[in-house]
Each structure stands twice: as C-alpha cells, then as structure tokens.
Amino acid sequence: MKNIIKISLVSACMGLALSSCQSDLTSLNDDPKHPSVLPSENLLATAMYQSSYYMDNPSVNFNNYRFFTQQWAETQYPDETQYNLITRNQPRNHFNRMYVYSINNLRQAKTNLKNEVEAEDIRTNKLATLEIEEIFIWENLVDTYGDIPYSETFKPDEILTPKYDDAKTIYIDLIKRINDVIATIKPTVKGYAPVSGLTSGDFVYSGDMTKWIKFANSIKLRLGMNLADVDPALAKATVESAVLGGVISSEAEAYKFGYDGNTFSSPVFDNLVASNRNDFLPSELVINTMKNLSDPRMSIWFTQFEGGYKGGVFGELNDPYTKFSQLGPYFRSATTASNLLSLAEVTFLKAEAAARNYSVGDTAVNLYNAAVKVSMRENGVSDLTTDAYLLANPYNPANWKQSIGVQAWIAMFNKGFASWNFTRRLDNPVLVNPPKSNLSSVPYRMPYSDQEYVLNGANVNAAAAKIGGDKATTKLFWDVN
C-alpha cells in the first residue's frame, strides 16, 4: 500500500484543489516511478487513506471531533478542550485534507478511468466505487462546515473561486447521487458470477460491489436521519428507502480502513503511542456516565487509578497524567482500523428511525437492544453480561432521545464524527460549555478555513453572512432543536 499511496500523492497539488494545479509533469513522462497519468486504483488508495486517517485522527491539529463531544480531556494543553480552533488552524487542515488530498484524487481517478482498458461492467463498477467514496467525503464536509463549495468545485479552467452551496441543497443532491449510482452497479452477471470493482486500490471492500451498495445505503440512512427534524417527510422517505435497499448488517460490511502497523499505523496509535504524548484522557463526563450505568466496557477501554476510574475535567488544566484513568491498550494498537461507518452506528440510526415511527423492519426497543449488543460484542463483552446491562438500562419510549442518545454516544466513543452527529441531533447527553471556553456554547460546526478568506473571500464572506456568522456556535441547517 505504501508505494500506491506515495505514487498517488503526485496528483495532489499543494494548496486547495479548487484552483488549477500548476505542476509541470512533462519531465516525468519517461520515469516509470513517477508516471504522469496515475491509475485510478492508485488515486482511490490515496483518497481512502487520506480521508480515513484524517476523519479518524485525534490530533489537536485536525478535526477535534472527540473534543466537540467532550469524550476526551487533556491534562497539559487544554486549548482544544476550551474550543480554541484558531491557534492550530484545525478548520484549514481538515478542509484541505478532504478537498485536496481526498476528493481531488477521486475526481482525477474518474478522469483517468476513462482511458483504462476494462470490460464495461467492471468499468461501471469502478466508477460507482469512486462516486460512492466521493459522496462519503462530501457528507463529512457538509456535516462539519455546513454550506460549502460544491457545485462549482474542481473546474479550474472555468471557475477559480467557487461559490458556497446551500447545505440542504447539497444533501438533496447527495441523496440523488446515491440513488443514481446504486442503480448503475452490476454486482453479478446474469445473477450468479460476481463482478468486481476497483480491487487492488480498494482497501475497505476489495472490489465487493454488494458491500459498496450497503455502504452507499448506509450513507443515505445517515443523511436521512439528519434531516428528521428539519424535513420529516423527506427524512422518512430517505431512511425507509435506504433500509429497504439494504444497509450495513454485519461487521464484515462496516466501512473499516485497516492499517498494517508497519508502513501505516492507526491515527489513534500515532497520537497516543508513537507521539509519546501523555496528554489525552477519558473525560470525567464519560467516566461518570458509564459508572452510573455500570457499563462493562469501562474495564476494556480504561485503566484504573487507585482502584477505581477517574476522568479528566473537560476544558481544564488537569493534574498530572498519571493521576487519572487512561485510554487503555484497546486503543493503542497500531493496526486498529478506522471504523467510520460501523454496524453499531447503523443499528442505532435504525433504532432512532423506529422511535420516529419510520418503517425500518423492527421496533425501537428491539433495535435499541440490538444496537447496544452490537457495540458490546464489538468490544468483547459477552451476551450474558449485555443482557444484564440492558435489564438495568432499558429503552425508555417516553424519553427515547435520551435513551438512544446516551447509549449511542457511549457506543461511538472513539468514533468522533459519528458521535458528534448523534449529540447534535438528539441533544443527549447534555454537553455543558466549559467555564474557560473560547466560545459562547459548545461547537455545532467547524468554522471555515482561514485560507478561504484569502483565496475565495467574496464567496466565503457571503456564505458566512447567509448562515448567521462563520462561528463554531452557528448550528447546521438540520440541527434545529
């Protein structure tokens, strides 16, 4: 994988891919190690690695999702838990990783694929793979920033300063794109012979198009649920269509980008172990919530301090690192995959859909129980122990947002982006703005990249005015409660 990704990086010009790339590649024409036209599989590999690694990255320099959901605390440098998003340029860094290193490579892969010799069915599936992967990254961008450059992007010969599109309009288009691309996929020939997609560059599903269909429908499910409070009719239709089409239903179908632990390591390992940064702790909110529920995952996830569990105070300069429970060996493996659309998340989304009276094949209580069991199994907890946990912490239909919200928040521990979606949509658990916060409330979005104000000033200023201010405290269009 190392060579594929190193070669692929030639295609990503430094700086935002919304403007034209200026690199002159003619000198590489005769160099087989630096081809001027990269195979689509190489470009997919790079996009998958970059998007997965940086969506999952707990570094204080990037997305900060784990701090937005107050699941991790800091001991030495509390700026990020005090919601300082300026000093380290997190908005710029995440913006560039998703646009330049991820979507840019996928767009180029689509272009290059046209000139690659393939059977028509395989070419169609390869194009579908690139399209679904691109939609996945767009969904991350729009749910991180809100209105973003979308329809006018990646047209360097026509548009150097793309407009910012309305976030709901983007949502509607992404749903349409999912429906359209699923209709093109040919998982088998005449119903029996499998037809692959991009195999060698596909480090998640290895070209299995049946799994790509389930992944696409699961993205659609996530989009539909986010629309639930702002457009109930569209949300219901989208969610029911996604579930009917088939969503992730096993661990083997979850979107997990793996690491070999040698050439590439888990981003969590890189920040907890390789960096020797003894700073990150489970927060007091996480520890106390799980204590109150007698959650068996605590002993798997965290170390003990003086015979018990002690979390760091969120947003404060805490006592020395050794005075607290720490993130245990479970999170410190170099080979732990980035599980970016998990079976647990999909099952909790279905439970929420059922609680909203959508038709998703089962009741809210059954899906709530199933979702908790999926998370427990994922973390090595026995079904017997889980049954006792559910007996003590049953689904509460009178306050389903709290039941599902709190349990999903715990289950999404270390799945920062998914957790942030649940907390923003369900407002549970209740997150309190820390006393020393740089903001007037907890973050509901990431501010725009500071580079956009230099390179695309008129459009980013117009977007900021439209949404009510380019602030982390400005809610996304779907976060209406």
Descriptive report:
It is a single chain. By secondary structure, the chain is mainly alpha-helical. The chain has two domains: 2-17 and 37-64 and 75-258 and 337-467, Serine Threonine Protein Phosphatase 5, Tetratricopeptide repeat; 283-331, no CATH class. It is 47% helix and 4% strand. The protein has helices spanning 2-8, 40-55, 65-68, 90-113, 120-145, 167-184, 209-226, 232-245, 267-274, 284-292, 298-301, 343-355, 364-378, 383-392, 400-411, 416-426, 452-455, 457-467, and strands spanning 72-74, 148-149, 164-165, 188-189, 193-194, 255-257, 280-282, 338-341. A two-stranded antiparallel sheet has the order 1-7. Helix 5 packs parallel to helix 7 (209-226) and helix 13 (364-378) runs parallel beside helix 15. The longest helix is centred in the first third of the chain and has 26 residues, at 120-145. Residues 1-22 form the signal peptide. This is Susd and RagB outer membrane lipoprotein domain protein. InterPro entries: SusD-like_2 (IPR041662), TPR-like_helical_dom_sf (IPR011990). Keywords: Signal.
**Main sheet makeup:** 2 strands, antiparallel
- Amino- and carboxy-terminal Cα gap: 44 Å
Average pLDDT figure: 92
What's the tally of helices? Answer: 18
Low-confidence stretches: 1-30
Query: Judging from the principal axes of the Cα atoms, what is the shape?
Result: globular
Number of domains: 2
Helix content: 40-55%
Q: DSSP strand (E) fraction?
A: under 5%
Please state how the strands of the largest beta sheet are arranged side by side: 1-7
Assign the structural class, choosing from mainly alpha, mainly beta, alpha/beta, alpha+beta, or little secondary structure: mainly alpha
Q: Could you tell me the radius of gyration in angstroms? A: 22 Å
* Beta strand count: 8
Q: CATH first level of the largest domain: which class?
A: Mainly Alpha
What's the CATH topology label of the largest domain?
A: Serine Threonine Protein Phosphatase 5, Tetratricopeptide repeat
The CATH architecture of the largest domain would be Alpha Horseshoe
Oligomerization category of the chains in this entry = single chain
Along the chain, the helix and strand elements come as HHHEHHEEHEEHHEHEHHEHHHHHHH
InterPro entries: SusD-like_2, TPR-like_helical_dom_sf
Pfam families: SusD-like_2 (PF12771)
Signal peptide: 1-22
Keywords: Signal
